[in-house]
Amino acid sequence: MVYPTYRTTLLQPTLEKAWFCQFCIGILICVNNGACFTFGIFSPYMKTGAFHYTQSQIDAVSTVGVLLSYFSIPTGFLYDRKGPAATLFVGTVLNVTGWMGMYFIFKNMEHPLLSNSVVVMAFFFGLSQLSASFYETGSVLTNLSSFSCYQGRVVLIQKTFMGLGSSLVAQIYVAFFEKNFSGVAPFFAFLFLYSAFAGTLAVLYLRLPTPETRCVGLNVEDSQTRALGGGEPRMFRRPFSVGTLILCVSVAFVLVTSLFENFVELTDAMRVWIGVATILLCLSFISMVFTTPSYEVNRWWGEGEVFAQETAGLEGPQTATTTTMNAAGLTSAMLEEGDRAHEVVEDGALSAEVAASATQQKSLDDDSAIAKGEALKYGTVAHTSGSFPPPSPTADMPYGALPDDLESAGNPFAFHLNDESLWVNVQHREVWLLWIVCFGAWSAMTVVSSNSSQIYQALAYDSFSLTVNTVFVSVYGAASAVGRIIVGFLHPRLARRHIPISVLLPFAPLLNIVGLPLFLIAPARMLFLPFFVVGLGVGFSWGSTVLIITSLFTRNNCGKHYSFLYTAGMLSPLIFNMALFGPVYDHYREVQGHGSDGSCEGVVCIAAPMLVCTALNVIAAPLGYIFFKRTTARRGIVYTA
């Protein structure tokens, strides 16, 4: 059915605009989080001034940062217990403190205000990275719930900016900081000021939906989408299409600009234009707020009594009674659609004439009974524990309490959402299969992202350029964004075909198997190819993993399991940075006699970590396929007795 809209002024607040304002703030947080992946921009400065760090010392700093960025189990528990506001507040304090510390370290590079100690450097850089999991959990998981009808678009747009954010920050650095300042301290000043601004907005405005703020078409599935068997509603296609268009333009802009910077010497005017265009692209997402429609059904949700009184004065007592009852009685039930749980609203109140009919009134009464637990229209509440469901649960639901998962007797594709504790789940193989795949995919990210500057310098020793070094950071981030875009594009299409999102799990290791060896054979000017392929794999991994978690676990069980996977990312720098990349790089640097400038020349400097990481991904790819087959066959993470 077609939902009637009502006119609003450009700045008139509505429920729909409020939700899209939250979405835009989430994008700002993701851009801020992208700065965590720009270590390659400022790591060359650690070899100059009073620092003169060896590669092992640089890897020690980056390893502390990576470890803390993945140390997110406390984040998951904080989010599950206290919600997004507390989670984002902690993240903002950590991020601002970390970047401020880095600013004071690099403010005077010959005489650092906070010493040139590796420990001090690692401490403040680690604080900035520790905030990453708080920002991601607090913003992405919140908007996946707040826009549960558009989870694919959330990944497509917001999650993509987790990767694209590093590219945008890199472009801002090239435009305004690289040539205009002799050091990197002003860049850190920009980072902590932006973090304070975006973090404050997020703490104040990012919220989970409540019974008073639920919105039909965003976090409540409408009847038309239900009738079509799921997928994305049409109600808010326009603003999400605008956001998707801006995202695609941003990715294309970053890729074209990065390639241009790779081959052309930039003038000052070019740098300014690039910087201004980057900022405008980030700000243009506010247009999503102004293009969103406002629906009567959502005005009723918050203003049911007022609307009923207005209708009573126009249409007489009988219609008024029916309308009042319906406006106050919009009731909810949960319907599992493949990989997400939506709150389904009985929206028959849109038509007073239809609502007045006996048939519609009976339907409303039936749905009220469903919401109160007196009847289950679609069958029984799907069992959400790790064991197979009992034949017939009979416990009544209190009014307003909604199950995570309703299983339709006619829907054989519904998954059983796992609500077992983390301790129970780690005793079974499914969680470990997922963990190993993430370990392989994220280890490639660790090797390439943390050491991008050293990889480029080793392979282009005589032609090293800070601008081109930043370009590779940008290409990597843009490729990660493309991977997330593809996942977001595929998600609703897989859902309509009842194909679990976990089918995408093996793709990241497969891309790494192709991309990592390319570093060993690509000429210096073509290094953007392996950076792009590995970045694409990273995007696939991050885009699909969060959707896999939300498709397999109950809503209050996602945070801790998502955070558990981060231990894979914590282990990767210990192996690939501390044990492999740093020692191997420094060994060949000494052999070649480059101890004074801290650099190493040739493929031999990076071959060992690249080959070991490739072998790990060769193992991870088939394990990802096994995970997909097991969870699909069992309709979730379900254990036999």
UniProtKB/TrEMBL annotation:
Entry keyword set: Membrane, Transmembrane, Transmembrane helix
One Pfam family it belongs to: Nodulin-like
Gene3D superfamilies on file: MFS general substrate transporter like domains
InterPro entries in the cross-refs: MFS_trans_sf, Nodulin-like
Record's GO cellular component terms: membrane
Bilayer-crossing regions: 20-46, 58-79, 85-106, 113-135, 187-206, 240-260, 272-290, 431-450, 470-491, 503-522, 528-552, 564-586, 606-628
Keyword field contains Transcription: no
Residues covered by the Nodulin-like domain: 19-283
Membrane topology summary: Multi-pass membrane protein
Compartment(s): Membrane
Annotated protein name in UniProt: Nodulin-like domain-containing protein
Native source species: Leptomonas seymouri
